[in-house]
Write a structure and sequence with these properties.
single chain, 435 residues, Transferase, Pyrimidine Nucleoside Phosphorylase, Chain A, domain 3, Pyrimidine Nucleoside Phosphorylase, Chain A, domain 2, Aldehyde Oxidoreductase, domain 3, globular
Length: 435
């Protein structure tokens, strides 16, 4: 069997067998298949697609390309949550401590920035000293002891996806339903959680812009989860504007802390209960005391989420003082504002453009080996439906150098559409798929 033949077969629209997919994943993981051939195959998949059978086989092959974590030693039903990638998406930073404060174990594996979207691991690493890597034994012990741990994908867990993830990020092949589904679900299956909640983004700032593509992705992932014996639910959520107001690693951590304290943006407070309500439900089978939070601000319902976040940070080597003093987070030396060119209502925000600008400022990666600047980013002063006057601040830019601001200022201004009337309100949660 040759990789050349598999590339040609997929290029011509053929369907790969399970044996061929295993050969592909095993060879790429071991280094027998070079990046340039895998990139060619990935582009063929991007244009030709994969069948449901191919996608399922690919997911399982990637999940078993390394270690599969055994979480049976964790008490209760282990719940994991995943977002398909958004702009300004602080949901995990809020949900993990909030749900853990309810007594439901949260065994969470997260990812890094991909394309124009932020990564939970990069956000957490903006907290001084925070370590996103643990041994499986440390992971289990942490969740048993404090009910929550958020870790990164180690080299031993779904290593095929770890290599492929980076390759897709720099070859313009991210936006494919099968590849996204296999990437997400392989990590989730290898991570060992019993139940999965999937936050599937749709709209301008998502990887998949079309609603029907998003539904297909959600259905595909729920089907994979069920086949693997995991209770799985997907929530399709709107990403036609950034979630919250902060875009950028340390800025989003600060916003998450504000939300845990009951002072965060309204849309974050509205969205968080949707997946949050789903996460504790399976845990009730093991612990009827677990109760879903009604709102992100309802700290009293489940205890004290800020304290749980502080405990989680301390457990993973970070400086817990940031919860009480966010000024300890990295800060950018240059701050400036982008003003509204005219009066009216903000009737459109290009979330993709703002996510891309944030990446260009240094908050994400343009190449595999780029170092993330945790301090830079954007803070929105106007959202969809905001009434603005000419000269009002639309966005505050946090940058490393003045020339960085000059390079993106016009793109930021163009990302805001200002019209004569307010747009119709749009719900954040658009559909629910699965039990």
């Amino acid at each position: 069997m040759r990789m050349y033949d598999l590339i040609r077969k997929k290029r011509d629209g053929g369907q790969l067998t399970e044996e061929e997919i295993r050969f592909l994943i095993e060879g790429f993981t071991k280094g027998d298949i070079p990046d340039y051939q895998m990139a060619a195959f990935t582009m063929a998949v991007y244009f030709r697609g994969m069948t449901d059978e191919e996608t399922a086989a690919l997911t399982l092959a990637m999940a078993h390309s390394g270690d599969v974590v055994d979480l049976s030693a964790i008490e209760g039903i282990k719940v994991d949550k995943h977002s398909t990638g958004g702009v300004g998406d602080t949901t995990t930073l809020v949900l993990a401590p909030l749900v853990a404060a309810c007594g439901a174990p949260v065994a969470k594996m997260s990812g890094r920035a991909l394309g124009h979207t932020g990564g939970t691991l990069d956000k957490l690493e903006s907290i001084p000293g925070f370590n996103v890597y643990m041994t499986p034994e440390q992971f289990v012990e942490s969740v048993n002891r404090i009910k929550v741990a958020v870790i990164g994908q180690t080299a031993s867990i779904a290593p095929a996806d770890g290599k492929w993830y980076k390759l897709r990020d720099v070859t313009a092949t991210v936006e494919n339903v099968s590849l996204i589904a296999a990437s997400i679900m392989s990590k989730k299956l290898a991570a060992g959680a019993d139940a999965l909640v999937l936050d599937v983004k749709t709209g301008q700032g998502a990887f998949l812009k079309k609603f029907e593509d998003t539904v297909k992705l959600a259905e595909t992932m729920v089907s994979i989860g069920r086949r693997a014996g995991r209770k799985t639910v997907a929530l399709i959520t709107d990403m036609n504007q950034p979630l919250g107001r902060a875009i950028g690693n340390a800025l989003e951590v600060k916003e998450a802390i504000e939300t845990l304290r009951g002072h965060g943006p309204e849309d974050v407070a509205e969205l968080v209960p949707a997946p949050g309500t789903q996460m504790p439900l399976p845990a009730r089978a093991a612990d009827d005391a677990a109760r879903p939070p009604r709102t992100a601000h309802d700290a009293a319902a489940c205890g004290r989420p800020p304290e749980k976040f502080r405990e989680m940070i301390r457990n993973q080597g970070g400086d817990p003082r940031v919860v009480d003093d966010p000024s300890l987070l990295p800060t950018a030396p240059v701050r400036t504002v982008v003003e509204a060119p005219r009066s009216g209502w903000v009737d459109g925000i290009d979330a993709y453009a703002l996510g891309d600008v944030t990446m260009l400022l240094g908050a994400g990666r343009r190449k595999q080996d780029d170092v993330v600047d945790h301090a830079v980013g954007l803070v929105l002063h106007a959202k969809l439906g905001s009434k603005v006057e000419e000269g009002d601040v639309l966005c505050e830019v946090h940058a490393r150098r003045p020339e960085d601001v000059a390079a993106v200022e016009e793109r930021i201004r163009n990302a805001f559409s200002i019209g004569p009337r307010a747009p119709e309100p749009r719900p954040l949660v658009l559909r629910r798929i699965g039990d």
